[in-house]
Amino acid sequence: MANPIFRQKLATGEFFVVPGIQDMITAVIANKVGFDLVYGTGYWLTASASGLPDAGIATYTDMRDRMATLVRTSTAAVIADGDTGYGGLLNVHHTVRGYEQAGVTAIQIEDQEFPKKCGHTPGRRVIPMEDMAEKIRVAADAREDKENFLIIARTDARESEGMDATLRRLEAYAKAGADVLFPEALTSEEEMRRACAAFDKPVMANMSNGGYSPVPHTTVLAEIGYAYAIYPSLTSLAAAAAMEKALVDLKEQGIGQPEDLFSFNEFCSLIGFEDVWAFEKKWAR
Predict the structure, then answer these.
(1) Domain match, 267 and 162 both
(2) What is the CATH number of the domain that holds 98?
(3) Which of 69, 157, 165, 248 has the smallest count of CB within 10 Å of its CB?
(4) Pairing state of beta strands 150-155 and 106-110?
């Protein structure tokens, strides 16, 4: 059974935030900080695990395994990036079943042509609206937990077809059975307000640092009318900046023990070494 926390939080009508997770180090730090939900981001899980761009190169099997590892590691419920469903209708059915069996709470499916591209890079192309609506109908039918496993429908039509077409697509996806609507890469707060005002269903925001969309304060996002926002790139870009600084300091200044490092002993505890030590103490011969 999917974790009901996502459905329950949406039902309250109170805005919430969901951090993106790019690797299991991030997952255990998010555990420490405390979140009810985390986002398994396709872009950053692919970058961290394979050193490859989010361009449809990672396979369904790759991503399902990464999501299953995230579910095992995280104490929060996982919203999972399912790309395009990795193919046609049969692939969508297989993807939804596989992700649900992996333990995620929701799957996000987008209307790009396969192979897809990151939603904040140029040259994205979308499939016909009715083809995507059919994918959503298949996804909604494929899930076993009809109440708690949620379907998020994303459209990337803003770049190629404009805002009016984006809203028409989301309306079709809502009618097809999507639980949450995801207009990707909106370019202004005005567009965000239009999207939120157009639907009774929850609308989510993608706060991709450095992307096409503005990243206002969470109080503004709540006032605009979003149900929640994901922050897929926040931890990855913060970590990359910190790692670059540490490596430059090491190379140029010989500093190998900076003052602002995370505690090694605390991280050993977060990652589970205390359980290992307790086991060894119990069973040592």
Answers:
(1) no
(2) 3.20.20.60
(3) 248
(4) parallel
Residues 186 and 47 in one domain: yes
The pLDDT value recorded for residue 54 is 86
Number of domains into which the chain is organized: 2
Do 42 and 22 lie in one domain? The reply is: yes
How much of the chain, in percent, has pLDDT values that exceed 90? 92
Examine the domain organization and report whether 134 and 254 are in the same domain. Answer: no
**pLDDT averaged per 10 residues in sequence order, the chain, 285 residues:** 95 98 98 98 95 91 97 98 96 98 98 82 89 98 97 95 97 98 96 97 96 94 98 97 97 95 96 95 88
Whether residues 173 and 256 fall in one domain: no
What is the pLDDT at residue 213? 92
pLDDT, one tens digit per residue, over 215-243 is: 999 999 999 999 999 999 999 999 999 99
Both 118 and 253 in one domain: the answer is no
| DSSP line for the chain | ---THHHHHHHHT--EEEEEE-SHHHHHHHHHH--SEEEE-HHHHHHHHHS--SSS-S-HHHHHHHHHHHHHH-SSEEEEE-TT-SSSHHHHHHHHHHHHHHT-SEEEEE-BPSSP--TTSS---B--HHHHHHHHHHHHHH-S-TTTSEEEEEE-THHHH-HHHHHHHHHHHHHHT-SEEEETT--SHHHHHHHHHT-SS-BEEE--TTSSS----HHHHHHHT-SEEEETTHHHHHHHHHHHHHHHHHHHH---S-TTPPPHHHHHHHHTHHHHHHHHHHH--
User: Are 213 and 92 within one domain?
Assistant: yes
78 with 186, same domain? yes
